[in-house]
Amino acid sequence: MHAGYARYFTPPPLEAVPQSTIGKFAGTTNESEVTKDTPVKSERAHYFDAGMTQKIAEGFTVGIDGFYKSSHSVLDEGQFGEALILSSFNYKRGEIYGGEFTANYDQGPFAAYLNAAYGWARGTNVSSAQFLFGRDELDYIRHHWVFLDHDQRFTGSAGVSYTWNDWRLAIDGLYGNGLRRGFANTQKNHPYETFNVGLSRRIQLTQKTALKIRFDVVNILDKIYELRDGSGIGVGAPQFGQRRGFYGTVAFDF
Questions:
Q1: The whole model's pTM is what?
Q2: 134-137: long-range contacts at Cβ-Cβ below 8 A with a sequence spacing of 24 or more?
Q3: Is the per-residue pLDDT at 17 higher than 60?
Q4: Domain count of the chain?
């Protein structure tokens, strides 16, 4: 069993857009609807965590963990516009909480794992870099709790592997029920899942040296999945997960 508490202090990134820069666009098509630009502050947070791990049988363990984080001046970053440049801002208040269940089995030639996580991340009242937002969205966030762009309610992963005569075959998968999208992150993207396959072999050359050969196929079903659709807070362009990919590795162990 374990339990812990931490008090975090997180400085903002060094990059910033000063008020003088915003003023240069006054009267142009790039003029900000909101011109207020309160400086980005450091985040301060209380973090609580507790959990336990239990051995059920030889090689088989399960675990459960829960966490809660309460923050002031929550730091967040967003891509405001099409350029791949992230801008920092603060929510005045924020909270993140959730939990995770894990199970692991490793006995003989067979191994497997399972992770299932639940998360909830939200903030309210943008307190810095207000010029990055439209007036309607800024007013809405001032009076409502909104989900953060990395909020994903359910996430899961699982994998199995089998070893036979120095050969090892592994299959694993990942599931997510979708990140946030839409006005003030009030909607979410579609769920997604991907599967990967790997085959490896260890060839013993001498008593102290060995050759490791491995071949992997990532996203073997070539699933086209969209992580972000270009809408939501600080999301200026769509983002997709990796398509099918093939990877080979040769390593010398001595």
A1: 0.82
A2: 134/33, 134/34, 135/33, 135/34, 136/183, 137/183, 137/184, 137/233
A3: no
A4: 1
